[in-house]
Amino acid sequence: MSITSTIKTSAFVWSKTLSLLSRTGKGLAATVLFATLLEAALALGVIYSVKHLVDTITAATATIGTHNSLTSAVFIQLGITGGCIMASVLATSLASLLRMKQGMIVSDFVDREIHDRATRVDLAFYESPAYYDSLQRAREAGSQRPSQVIANVITLLRSGVMLVGILVLLAGIEARMLPVLLITVVIALAVRVHFTRAMFRWRTQRSQMERRASYLDWMLTSDVYAKEFRVSDLGGFLGETYASIKRQVRNEQLRIELRRTWAELGVAAIGAIFFFGATAFLIQQALAGSLTIGQVVMFVLLFRRAEGSGTEMVSSISRLVDDQLYLGQLFGFLSVEPNLKSPDSPVALVRPVVEGLKLNNVSFRYAQSERFALQNINFEIRPKQIVALVGENGSGKTSLIKLMCRLYDPDQGQVTLNGQDIRTYDPIEYRKVFSVIFQDYAKYPERVRDNIRYGSIDLPDDLAAIQVAAERAGAHDYIKSLPLGYETPLTKLFDHGEEISIGQWQRLALARAFFPASEFIILDEPTSAVDPKAEFELFDNFRERIGDRGALIISHRLSTIRMADYTYVLDKGEIKEQGTHEELMALNGHYASLFEKQAQYYR
User: Fold this and answer.
1) Residue 409 belongs to a domain with what CATH number?
2) What is the pLDDT of residues 488-518, one digit of tens each?
3) What are the Cα distances from residue 385, in Å, to 355, 436, 550, 551, 553?
4) Closest Cα to residue 573, out of 392, 396, 403?
5) Which of 456, 482, 517 is the last residue of a domain?
6) Which listed residue, 198, 364, 429, 583, has the most CB atoms within 10 A of its CB?
7) Domain count within the chain
8) Who wins on pLDDT, 552 or 274?
9) Structural contact between residues 551 and 387, judged by C-beta atoms closer than 8 angstroms
């Protein structure tokens, strides 16, 4: 990385980090700064008062029995020293408490920002390994990093003030000792920064490996894979794969840490040699009468304190370098903006919908793919119309739904609602026109009523309306049989939780799709896991269940979509046939062939 880009990155990171301070309030930030400076000043005051105490004791010991006033002065100075120590302890505790509060506020804010960004980025981000790498690195940076930066800056400031004060006091005793101290600090800083950068480079290279280990850990401890692991005895194999990855990561990290430990031991040895040499020199000066015992004691305390402050400064600078590297990735992730966002002046969406939804010559392909998932699609669904979409796996049915809901934009062509290009609408408002049950619908580990209400959190948490949606989906009867009914948590992770079958989950997902006040309901394989009786009951009076809404139904069971007003046949990303059931059967094409193949099993 060039010096120019490094400077730009540093400026970006620091501007973003300092802006976080405004989230804690200017009053709190000022109070933390004052408490930190007071903490440093009192720590120096303690050392200086100890020096006076030693000199006072020395003078009193030399004249014992003749100067009672000196003996009294010892106890006065002792009281002053004790008071300084107590004040220093209180200041340290207060500063620590204020920094903790400030860190909590900043961490909570960053958590919210990460969650907000992860839920607002385009769906395409979730289909890119680069996105997962950036998210992994943002998580490694963590919500604690910004608060750590602020704490490190404050620690650096406190250590700097302490070190400057110590150098001033040391200069008053023996100025020739200052270069010795500074050389030790510079060597320690160089070593720390070198290994901080080495560790960062290693962690960046290991992102995908650690993400795979985390995923394996989740698989091994999750109930999702528990049955298959036991039947196929897969747990031991994947457990060893996980252990192998962790061993490789651990060994690489230990090699870096071992090199750093030896380097830091070398720095410590150099510091010890300097300390003993400097102390021996000052003791000789004291024996020659050039210095007092108090000055020698103060020098020893100051030198050790200087080493501590220097080490603290080095650690803070090292951590700041480390934080800057990670925060660059965190803020980089947080700066990602969705491409599918509201225009500056969105068109007001007229509801209820009057003209319906149309796809005009639409073609689309995923970012990582060279082939089109959909090509030259012309498709329409009108208000209150039931449309069916038929096609084999991989034909592009789910991709079509994603375009309809504007989870993606087409590469060619146009999608319109009420005759208006949907890109002119606010995406959030536009998506409220639809309620969708995807083939891989969510199973929330929450109460039953929450699993239904999550279909539209804008609506009130009205149990009566939730029950109506459950009845339309055929879920109400089994929900009543649960121990706590609609209040039952659907996970064994929490007390009184219950597990339900896949078919029951699918009905619950249907209820979630029925709950919103949408104009269109989209059902992607809505009955793949329910029994034939439940499927017949759902579609027998389907128009009554959906009310005034239009519907798009995707199903491999052609018997369930005979009641559709219009059907599209999708094959390899293109619409091959379209029409009513009777018209498609008369064509004697792909649809008729599929229908006849399925029908023979019911003759």
Assistant:
1) 3.40.50.300
2) 998 887 778 888 888 888 889 889 988 988 8
3) 11, 16, 5, 6, 11
4) 396
5) 517
6) 364
7) 3
8) 552
9) yes
Distance between CA atoms of 561 and 544, rounded to whole angstroms?
Answer: 15
Note down the domain range covering 504.
442-517
CA angle 383, 387, 390 (to 5 degrees): 160
Tell me, yes or no, whether 459 and 417 share the same domain. Answer: no
Q: What are 359's strand-pairing partners?
A: 379, 415
Clarify whether residues 415 and 452 are in a common domain. no
Domain end among 334, 368, 402:
334
Statement to judge: residues 512 and 537 lie in one domain: no
Is the pLDDT at 309 greater than 70? The verdict is: no
Q: How far apart are CA 361 and CA 297, in angstroms?
A: 87
What's the chain's average pLDDT? Answer: 78
Determine contact, residues 445/491, Cβ cutoff 8 Å.
Answer: yes
Together in a domain, 61 and 186: yes
The answer to whether the CB of 144 falls within 8 A of the CB of 103 is yes
Would the pLDDT of 5 be above 70? no
Strand positions, DSSP E, 321-449: 357-364, 374-381, 386-390, 412-417, 420-421, 434-437
Phi, psi angle pair for 186, to nearest 5°: -65, -40
Same-domain pairing of 207 and 330: yes
CATH code of the domain in which 270 resides? 1.20.1560.10
Count Cα neighbours of 385 within 13 Å in the Cβ-side half-sphere.
18
Alpha carbons 137 and 332: distance in angstroms, whole number: 10
Residue labelled with tokens 């080095």: 314
Closest CA to 474 of 541, 524, 525: 541
Token readout for 226 is 């528990």
- Residues 24 and 31: their CA atoms lie apart, in Å, by 11
* The pLDDT value given to residue 27: 76
Token pair 């096609």 is found at 391
- The 10s digit of each residue's pLDDT in 293-302 is 767 776 767 6
The position carrying tokens 């509201």 is 342
- The answer for residues whose C-beta is within 8 angstroms of residue 401's C-beta and 6 or more apart is 436, 438, 522, 524, 552, 554
Burial class (CB in 10 A: 0-12, 13-18, 19+), 27: exposed
pTM of the model: 0.64
Q: Is 1 inside any structural domain?
A: no
Task: Say if residue 16 is in the same domain as residue 58.
Answer: yes
Q: Which helix (H) or strand (E) holds 571?
A: strand 566-571
* 196 plus 315 within the same structural domain: yes
Q: Is 419 left (phi over 0), alpha (psi -120 to 50) or beta?
A: left
DSSP annotation of 96 reads H
Q: pLDDT tier at 185 (50, 70, 90 boundaries)?
A: low
Do 391 and 277 sit in the same domain of this protein? no
Whether residue 427 is preceded by a cis peptide bond, meaning omega within 30 degrees of 0, is no
Q: Which residues of 237-268 are buried (b: 16+ CB within 10 A; e: fewer)?
A: eeeeebeebeeebeeeeeeeeeebeebbeebe
Does 340 fall in a domain? no
